């Protein structure tokens, strides 16, 4: 191939790459601030509330209020990272009685559509894969705001908070034994609180 | 007269073991509340095996120390023989304990990581107990020179004594209560004190402790 053909070919190649990236760019990409991103839960134990969290999860987030069709949430939670403050209880939660983490080490939520419910509330509909089965689930997230990060110039921070009531037995987390014994409730309050970062 | 002492010392050992074995029943761990059927039975059996293993480790060290009084009462040769037999029971009880407490939680759901440090200490203890037992019973077949074997066997044995006590005191909430802590602590300190006295005398007399 002669050198004179290289330049137009290179221009064509770059045009295709740049054009494609523009076409499939989607909404703005955000990175999870792990120190300020939390998935908490609370469940009844006879009379008390037991609180815990998943300490290890990732979030692939593309979000732009002006481009909800191109926005998406993908949570991947490492079940092993569950922490209720008592290691023995965590180990029990990881056992076959609840999450069976050895067989099903991850919980995945992948959005399929996002709708603006008004007043900064976004209904994030998607699929939840837990213990090998997939369920439809909608997470309501309130966009708390977007602004320049007070501690890091040139970086924007956005905040989302959302909570749902999750029927663990309807999603295979436990066989109902402890619920029937009146020990562990079936409805779990889940509260997701996120700060995400992007370059300005 | 030694026969009377033999009976008294054996009775004292049995009382100590019985007192230790009463702990899981009297100070029930909350883990048992969430187990039913076979799993519960296995976990209870596992707790008894674990405490039996600890008591036998204490006994094992007493037999290894072979104090002058013990030798006079039981005979040094007998103490060595009991030490060998007891070693097999320690290994059996420790392995049974590990299997019986781990199976109900799921073998694939092992307590690994920093937050399960008492269980990890227990795993180390189990490893050393099995290593001590196997290396002792197969020493000749493995052609391990006696001096090397003893140089490793002794510190590993005392390590097991310490780590097994730490494991038991911190692995279960039964031992967060004063009574069980005092009992295990007193037994450990008694064994450690006897070892200290024997070791001090051996050093003072400039001869190795527990000559074979």
Major sheet: arrangement of strands of chain A: 1-4-5-7-8-9-10-11
Mass-distribution shape of chain B:
globular
- Report the oligomer: heterodimer
CATH arch. level architecture of chain B? Up-down Bundle
**Helical proportion of chain A, percent range:** 10-25%
Helix content of chain B: over 70%
The interface involving the most residues is between: A-B, 16 and 10 residues
Give the count of helical stretches of chain A.
Answer: 3
In terms of structural class, how would the helical and strand content of chain A be classed?
alpha+beta
CATH class term of chain B: Mainly Alpha
Number of domains of chain A: 1
- Helix count of chain B equals 7
Q: What Rg of chain A, in angstroms, do the CA atoms define?
A: 21 Å
The assigned structural class of chain B equals mainly alpha
Kindly provide the radius of gyration of chain B, computed on alpha-carbon positions and rounded to a whole number of angstroms: 18 Å
Order of helices and strands of chain B: HHHHHHH
Count of domains of chain B: 1
User: If you average the pLDDT of chain A, what whole number results?
Assistant: 90
Range of strand content of chain A = over 45%
Please tell me about this protein's structure:
The complex is a heterodimer of chains A (200) and B (212). With 200 residues, chain A is an alpha+beta fold. Chain A has a single domain (27-199), classed as Lipid/polyisoprenoid-binding, YceI-like (Lipocalin), CATH 2.40.128. Chain A contains 3 helices and 11 strands, in the order αββββββαββββαβ. Chain A has an 8-stranded antiparallel beta barrel. In chain A, strand 8 and strand 9 (133-148) form a beta hairpin. With 212 residues, chain B is mostly helical. The model of chain B has no long low-confidence stretch (mean pLDDT 91). In chain B, helix 2 (37-65) packs across helix 6. Chain B has helices at residues 2-26, 37-65, 68-74, 76-102, 117-137, 146-171, 178-204. Chain A binds chain B through residues 87-88, 90-92, 94-97, 100-103, 177-178, 183, and chain B through 31, 34, 36, 105-106, 108-109, 111, 115-116.
């Amino acid at each position: 191939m002669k050198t004179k053909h290289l330049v137009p070919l290179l221009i064509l190649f770059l045009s295709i790459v740049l054009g494609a990236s523009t076409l499939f760019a989607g909404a703005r990409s955000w990175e999870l601030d792990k120190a300020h991103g939390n998935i908490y839960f609370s469940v009844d134990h006879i009379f008390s509330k037991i609180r815990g969290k998943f300490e290890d999860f990732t979030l692939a987030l593309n979000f732009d209020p002006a481009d909800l069709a191109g926005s998406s949430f993908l949570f991947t939670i490492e079940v092993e990272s569950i922490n209720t403050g008592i290691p023995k209880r965590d180990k029990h939660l990881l056992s076959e009685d609840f999450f069976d983490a050895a067989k099903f080490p991850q919980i995945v939520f992948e959005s399929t559509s996002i709708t603006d419910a008004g007043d900064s509330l976004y209904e994030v509909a998607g699929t939840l894969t837990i213990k090998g089965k997939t369920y439809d689930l909608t997470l309501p997230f309130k966009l708390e705001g977007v602004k320049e990060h007070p501690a890091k110039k040139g970086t924007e921070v956005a905040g989302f908070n959302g909570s749902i009531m999750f029927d663990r037995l309807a999603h295979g987390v436990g066989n109902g034994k402890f619920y029937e014994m009146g020990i562990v409730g079936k409805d779990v309050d889940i509260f997701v609180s996120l700060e995400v970062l992007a370059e300005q | 007269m030694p026969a009377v002492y033999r009976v008294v010392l054996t009775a004292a050992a049995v009382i100590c073991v019985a007192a230790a074995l009463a702990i899981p029943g009297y100070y029930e761990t909350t883990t048992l509340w969430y187990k039913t059927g076979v799993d519960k039975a296995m976990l209870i059996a596992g707790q008894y095996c674990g405490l039996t293993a600890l008591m036998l480790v204490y006994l094992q060290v007493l037999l290894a120390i072979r104090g002058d009084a013990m030798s006079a009462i039981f005979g040094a040769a007998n103490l060595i023989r009991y030490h060998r037999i007891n070693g097999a029971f320690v290994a059996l009880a420790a392995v049974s304990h590990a299997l019986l407490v781990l199976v109900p939680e799921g073998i694939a759901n092992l307590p690994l990581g920093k937050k399960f440090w008492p269980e990890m200490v227990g795993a180390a203890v189990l490893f050393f107990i099995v290593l001590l037992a196997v290396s002792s019973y197969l020493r000749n077949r493995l052609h391990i020179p006696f001096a090397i074997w003893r140089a490793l066997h002794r510190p590993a044995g005392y390590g097991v004594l310490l780590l097994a006590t730490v494991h038991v005191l911190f692995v279960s909430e039964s031992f967060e209560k004063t009574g069980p802590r005092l009992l295990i602590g007193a037994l450990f300190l008694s064994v450690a004190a006897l070892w200290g006295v024997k070791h001090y005398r051996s050093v003072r007399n400039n001869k190795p402790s527990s000559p074979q």
